């Protein structure tokens, strides 16, 4: 049984979503603030974290950064319906995904399934594979990426996104294709998630992120990896 940690200060939201997720067969543990959430994470080592942005004692962004510094566990942040900046900041802090309030239970369950399935498939694959394009060295079997010999700190989603591009060099991948392949086949999301992660990936692998040479934008469609040998 997969275990989830839900860090949320609103008792009613926690109860409602816990019941939904338990009906889906998950073991759900709860925390009402950031510090107790971090303590619970250390004690429980959950398979996925649901994290509210507005917490009483510390920012959900800071909690996300702390979690990401110690683990590659999938993190889904909960944000306000209209606050795009919250979404971007959460992804920059290391989150893999976000849901907006009011949370639609079936959508949340679908996203949780997608992230857990993706993590399980990655753990089971273990296929030795390594590519070098330009000054980027992708070592899949180790889950590592190097640039000019220096290891890069990528989130699991950024790593999966880079692998997807590397699997299709010189091929234009639409945002919908990337949502399906990187975030899950039954994923319910929007293209801003892809764009934000591509921006973060460019910051880490490109010499000049604002003038990318590896991951190019194909206007109106998506993105293409241009290997540089």
Jot down its keywords:
229 residues, alpha/beta, Arc Repressor Mutant, subunit A, 5-stranded parallel sheet
Mind explaining what this structure looks like?
- The chain is an alpha/beta fold and 229 residues long.
- The protein folds into 2 domains: 3-123, Response regulator (Rossmann fold); 127-225, Winged helix-like DNA-binding domain superfamily/Winged helix DNA-binding domain (Arc Repressor Mutant, subunit A).
- 44% of the residues lie in helices and 21% in strands.
- The chain has 8 helices and 12 strands.
- The chain has helices at 11-23, 34-44, 60-70, 84-92, 105-125, 156-167, 175-183, 191-205; strands at 3-7, 27-31, 48-52, 75-79, 97-100, 130-133, 136-139, 144-147, 150-151, 172-174, 215-218, 222-225.
- Strands 2-1-3-4-5 form a 5-stranded parallel beta sheet, with helices on both faces. A 4-stranded antiparallel beta sheet has the order 6-7-8-9, with helices on one face. The chain has a 3-stranded antiparallel beta sheet with strand order 10-12-11.
- It starts with a strand and ends with a strand.
- The model has no long low-confidence stretch (mean pLDDT 87).
């Amino acid at each position: 049984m997969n275990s989830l940690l839900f860090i949320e200060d609103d008792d009613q939201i926690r109860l409602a979503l816990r019941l939904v997720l338990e009906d889906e067969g998950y073991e759900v543990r709860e925390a009402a603030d950031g510090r107790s959430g971090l303590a619970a994470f250390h004690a429980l080592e959950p398979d996925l974290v649901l994290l509210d942005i507005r917490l009483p004692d510390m920012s959900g962004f800071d909690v996300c950064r702390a979690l990401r510094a110690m683990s590659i566990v999938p993190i889904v942040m909960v944000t306000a319906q209209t606050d795009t900046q919250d979404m971007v900041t959460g992804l920059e802090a290391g989150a893999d995904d976000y849901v907006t309030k009011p949370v639609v239970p079936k959508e949340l369950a679908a996203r949780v399934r997608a992230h857990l399935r993706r993590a399980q498939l990655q753990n089971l694959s273990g296929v030795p594979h390594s590519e070098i394009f330009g000054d980027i060295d992708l070592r899949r079997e180790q889950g590592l990426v190097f640039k000019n010999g220096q290891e890069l700190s990528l989130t699991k989603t950024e790593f999966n996104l880079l692998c997807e591009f590397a699997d299709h060099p010189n091929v234009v991948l639409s945002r919908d294709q990337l949502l399906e392949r990187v975030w899950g086949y039954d994923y319910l999301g929007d293209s801003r998630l892809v764009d934000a992660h591509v921006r973060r990936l460019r910051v880490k692998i490109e010499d000049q992120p604002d003038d990318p040479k590896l991951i190019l934008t194909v206007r109106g469609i998506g993105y293409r990896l241009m290997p540089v040998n």
